[in-house]
């Protein structure tokens, strides 16, 4: 799957005091482009420094079949574990990420730290896709 980059930021969940502002800012800056989007929207986590405690990049993206140079390529043959997000819960995405981190700490989730993504489908469903080793 080929994703066109809209906006990106680099942050850290634990060491960056402006992490929330950066994440909210990249989503807000993407809104003018996303308003005209017909398909799913993606929040892509990539360029990991180490694990979930290190720096990473977050890129807002949409599917494309164009040949634009500024894109991310999702390896659809890679193994992913999909975590559903409770779309009715305002904190659903955060709760899902906390579940992911807990499973990793417990050793029941072996993350590859290549490219993970949140998918926001047009029907309102939300899922988080975690690349596996």
Structural account:
With 133 residues, the chain is an alpha+beta fold. The chain has two helices and seven strands. It has a seven-stranded antiparallel beta sheet. The protein is globular, with a radius of gyration of 14 Å. It starts with a strand and ends with a strand. The mean pLDDT is 94.
Record keyword descriptors for this entry.
133 residues, 23% helix, seven-stranded antiparallel β-sheet, alpha+beta
Gross morphology is: globular
Show unreliable segments. Answer: none
* Spatial strand order of the main sheet: 4-1-3-2-6-7-5
The number of helical segments is 2
Strand content: 25-35%
Number of strands: 7
Using the CA coordinates, give the radius of gyration: 14 Å
- What structural class is derived from the secondary structure elements? alpha+beta
Helix content: 10-25%
Series of secondary-structure elements, N-terminal to C-terminal: EHEEEEHEE
Give the distance, in angstroms, between the N- and C-terminal Cα atoms: 19 Å
Task: Estimate the mean pLDDT confidence.
Answer: 94
Q: Largest sheet, if any?
A: 7 strands, antiparallel
